[in-house]
Every structure is written in C-alpha cells, then in structure tokens.
Amino acid sequence: MPFAKPYVRRWSVGAPARSVVSVLALFAMTGGLLAVAPWANAGPVKGHITGQEKLVPDVYSEAAKPDARRFTWREPSPTVRAEFRALSANPSRDICVAALGAGNAPAGEAKLIKVTGGHTIPTDIVITPGTRLSFDNRDPFPHRLYIVGNAAWKAENIMPGAHRDWTAPGGQGKFEFRDEATPSLRFYVNVEPQVVDIAYPGRDGNFAMRDLPAGDYTLQAFFNGRRVGRPLSVSAKDRNLVDLKDALVVGEAGDGK
User: Fold this and answer.
1) Residue 188 lies in a domain
2) Structural domain of 67
3) What is the DSSP string of 147-207?
4) 164: domain CATH number?
C-alpha cells in the first residue's frame, strides 16, 4: 500500500446486513469450505510522526552548495513565519514508514512510481525482494532513469505515457535511481525482507496502516534511502483500531545530513 491515507471508518444503513449476505453466499458457493486469511480480522494501526522538519532531502543540500552554481533570488516575506521558510522533507512522498516483522515476507504487489515535475512520487520506498516497481512517465518529455553504480539497469528513454519496470533482487540492499534528463530527481529503494506494510504520512504527520496483520512489529522511518529517527514497537490487534499514543520520531539532529 504505497499511498496511505488517514484512517476513516464509514458506516451506512444496511451495510452489516449486506456483508452477512455476501459472506453466506460465498460460504454456500464454496460448499462450506470458506478459508479465512490469517490477517482478515487484523485491525488498522494509526499514528503520527514528529521531527520531520529536521530532514532535508539530499538534492536540496547539494543545490545549496556554492560550487553547484544553482542560484535563486528571493525576497523574504514578513507574513511568513521563519519555520516555514526552511526547506525540509515532504512527508507524503519523502518519508516512508515501514512495519518490520520477525520473519521474511513474500514479494508484494507491483507498485506504481509516478515520474513527474522533477521528482518521483514517492521519492523513498521500502519493499520486499521480488516486488516489482513500474516507473510511469507523467511528463510531456522523455525521462532516462538509471541506478547509480548498476550497469545492468542503465539509462534508457521512457517516453511520455510509457513505463519501465524493475524488480527488487533477493536479500537486503539499497538502490538509488537518478535521471539523466532531470538532475533533481532522486529515488531511493530499500529492499528489506522483513517489511510487511508501509505508509506515507500526510502533511499533518498522521499515517495509517490498514493491511497490517495481527502481530508485533517495529515501525521504522526511511528517508534519503536510509533509516532515520528512532524505531517504535507496535502490536497490531485483531478487529480493533490501534491508535498509537507515542509519536514515531523520524528526525533528530544530524538525520537529514
């Protein structure tokens, strides 16, 4: 689930009755042999992050160096508070919250990565080995993505409206994707065999994991292709919403450097 939204439970008149009828119909069609997945009754996990203002994307730090020769002229506005003038991470695409379990997880469903506007959406992701990523060019010009230090996946044209796929190899590893056509693009992939679910916080810092099976997990934030902040232990319950009281710290001094 690459793009998590804040958890909202909606009820409508007649919904429970329709659910019961559907289950009974499926039970009848299977001759009474209705298998229930072990995560079917798992409740969602809801939480929030803190410290995201301390995280600065590498591409911003590189552009700020004098030898980069990337200059802009701006006039500070007295109506904008100082804390909002500093560049920092956009949680909804730059910070990936991963739930890590005790054992290895299977390959996940294919993930869509949008390439548009000088970056990817998202810019950081955590996946299991064997998971496929599909880079979809949403811009009106070609992109030429490649993996840094990987000659097997070199730059090739991705025409407007086209896509290019990549499948995560076995084991644990980190991969950085760049674009010959757009130097500002950075996309980081962390391959973690134990990741069970991921989420992206909103600008308000809230996040939710709807597909997390019942069990014990460690929540870990990833940014710029590496682990940041402090891990947080969580136990997902059957049927019940788990609302985390403690914030997941994603940024501390030095994390964004």
Assistant:
1) yes
2) 45-249
3) ETT-TTS--EEE-TT-EEEEE--SS-EEEEEEESS-TT-EEEEEE-TTEEEEE---TTSEE
4) 2.60.40.420
257 in any annotated domain: no
Which residues make Cβ contacts (< 8 Å) with residue 149, sequence separation at least 6? Answer: 176
pLDDT in tens, 120-167: 999 999 999 999 999 999 999 999 999 999 999 999 999 999 999 999
Q: What is the pTM of this model?
A: 0.76
Residue 140 is given by DSSP the state S
User: What tokens were used for 235?
Assistant: 């136990």
Q: Which residues contact 159 (CB under 8 A, 6 or more apart)?
A: 137, 142
CB atoms within 10 A of CB 190: 21
The verdict on residue 150 lying in a domain is yes
CA distance 84 to 54: 12
1 within domain boundaries: no
Pairing of strands 215-223, 226-236: antiparallel
Percent helix, strand and coil across the chain, each to the nearest 5: 15, 35, 50
What b/e string do you get for 214-232 counting C-beta neighbours within 10 Å, with b at 16 or more? bbebebbbbbbbebbbbeb
